[in-house]
Amino acid sequence: MFKVIRTLVTLGLLFATNSIVTASPAGIIKRDANTCPSYPSYPYYPSRSLASRQNGNGMSFTGSQWIWTNEVNGGNAPVGTRAFRKTLVPPQGKTPSSIKVAFAIDNTGTLFVNGQELATEGDWFSAGTYCVPLQPYQNVIAVNVTNGATTPNPAGLLVTAEVTYTDGSTSRIISDGSWRASGASIPNGWEQPSFDDSTWALAVNEGAYPKAPWGTIPIAGSDAVSLAPAQWIWTNEVTTPGGAVPAGARALRRTVILPPGHNSASAEVLITADNEYSLYVNGRFVGTGTDFQTAQRFTIDNIQGPKVVIAVYAVNTLTVPNPAALIASMQIKSTNPSYECLPDCSSESYVVTDVQWKATSGVPNGFEQPDFDDSTWPAAVAEGTVGSAPWAPVTTSAAVSAPGAPLSGAPAGN
């Protein structure tokens, strides 16, 4: 069964214990003024901006294979969690410095670096990109992926990665049949560098990207932010996509956790709603829109993490039930300050409106604040992609939109 939710892959970048650089207790290699000089000098390229990376200098899934375990039968795999590992041995004479990994999964997972959790994502319609330092010798990528639903259905893992060496050269890693895959039973410590995966079977190639049913997947930091991977969403008052729902204001939220050590971020967002909205990030008012067929573009700087909460006050106007929906796409860029000597070692998350959002028919006081508890809110309901009726066509502002003022009845924001 084709799943609505795109879920997160667990990529654990696990590293060998022999090292000439001291690791933190959690296993993450920290590069600072004391540890950077332990590597030979090499050209430190100025960090490229988000815009320049999106203009052709980024990563791509082209050449990568969707992979799974040998349990795949007729395109379907059993429900449950499986683990995948790839050992990276540097070419002779090369010393690894860092790795940037983009991944997509069907359905859920978590990314670890050297045994420490790095990121959790959902849905395969867009991919996050994460950069971390490497050990100077052997390294391991480990991925934990859960195939959801209640009956066998398509499942997969897709990875592209770029290893940067201390001489400034790079090499590419892709998901393919050389990866190791666990069975239904995953041993404790499978994500650790010392784990022996020699008895695991080789992964099975399901087909080269952009294989159906997954299609084309944009990568944060490499592809420009777009509404294409997003879905129109609303509260669970929706019974039929695009159908009539009661008029009035609604509150919607999505929480994103930055990678460890990433305590500040910037973002670019495209957003519109039927009929009106006011957008907040960590309680700060960002902007308002009142025409659902024109998406606004906003940029947000100095977002204080590690938690990033996107909150929307959306209003279905008129006085009788009618269609209502919100659609948004956001790329969030962050950097660990201890990686400052690594060239362009930032991480980017791609957040789109989907069923991972929370949505409620009321508008509680303080819902836009990052510490608000939305744990009892139901999941949002997906109504279709950006080209779906009755909202198409939607045009996108090329320039950054003026913020305007919060809607009447909306929070003032910080």
TrEMBL record:
Keywords, comma-separated and alphabetical: Signal
Domain of life: Eukaryota
Gene3D superfamilies with a match to the protein in the record: Galactose-binding domain-like
InterPro entries attached to this UniProt entry: Galactose-bd-like_sf (IPR008979)
Residues of the signal peptide: 1-23
Name this polypeptide is given: Uncharacterized protein
